[in-house]
What does this fold into?
Amino acid sequence: MHDTRSDDVILSARGISKQFSGFMAVKDVDLDIRRGSIHGLIGPNGAGKTTCFNLLTKFLQPTAGTITFNGRDITSMTPDGIARLGMVRSFQISAVFAQLTLLENVRIALQRRRGESFDFWRSETVLAANNAAAMERLDEVGLAGMAHLTAGELPYGRKRALEIATTLALEPEMLLLDEPMAGMGHEDIERTAALIRRIAVNRTVLMVEHNLSVVSSLSDRITVLARGQVLAEGDYASISKDPRVIEAYIGVGHD
It folds into this structure.
C-alpha cells in the first residue's frame, strides 16, 4: 500500500454539483484528496463519477460549488490553467502520435512543458537536448527499451503507459487518471497497477474507476459515488463491507 507523506489536503471540492437540462448528474459532493496519497473515485455505471472527474479536472464547469488546489480556487480555471499549476489529467494531451517514436512523443510533451513551440523542422541538435529527460520518463514507465519504436507499434496496454509518460513530462504534482485500466486484459492490468504504484511515490494520484477490485490494492482512500452523491468513503476494508456499497454494486460484479 502506498504511504501518505502527510495528511494535508492538496485538492478539495465543496458542494460541487452539475445539472444537465434539469438532470442533476452530480449533487453536493464534498471531496478531500490528501497530499501524497492514491485516492480512488469509484461507483457503478451511472453513478456520476465521470462527470465528477470532469468537474475536478475542469473539463466541465460546476453548476454550484467550489474546487481548490493547493489552497487556490480553481473553480473557474481551464484544464490548461490547472496543468500549469501542477495538476494534470492523464490522457488530456495524450492523443499520441502513432507515426512518431516513443522518444519523439515524450520529447514533444517536454517541449510543451518548457514553453517551446512544436517546430518539427527545428534542428536535430536542438531537439536532442530533450532526449535525456525524455528517456528518464520512458524509463519511469518501463518503456526505455522501446524508445525507438513508433507509438503505433505498441500493444494497447503499453500505449497507455506511453500516455502516462507524456503526462509525466509535464512534471505534475498531482496526476488524475481516467479509468487507466479500461479495456485491458489481466496481464496489462497488473502491469499498469505496478506502474501507478511507482509513479505515485512522489506524487498525488486520483483515479476514477468502476471496479472495486482494481483499486482495492492501490488506493489509500476510496470515495464511492452513487446517483451523483457520495455514498461512502474510507479505505477498502471499510467500504467493501458497507451495506450501502454492496447494495449499489449488486449485479455489477467485482472481479
In short: The beta strands are 9-20, 23-34, 38-42, 64-69, 72-73, 87-89, 174-178, 204-209, 221-226, 229-234. DSSP finds ten helices and ten strands in the chain. Residues 94-169 form one domain.
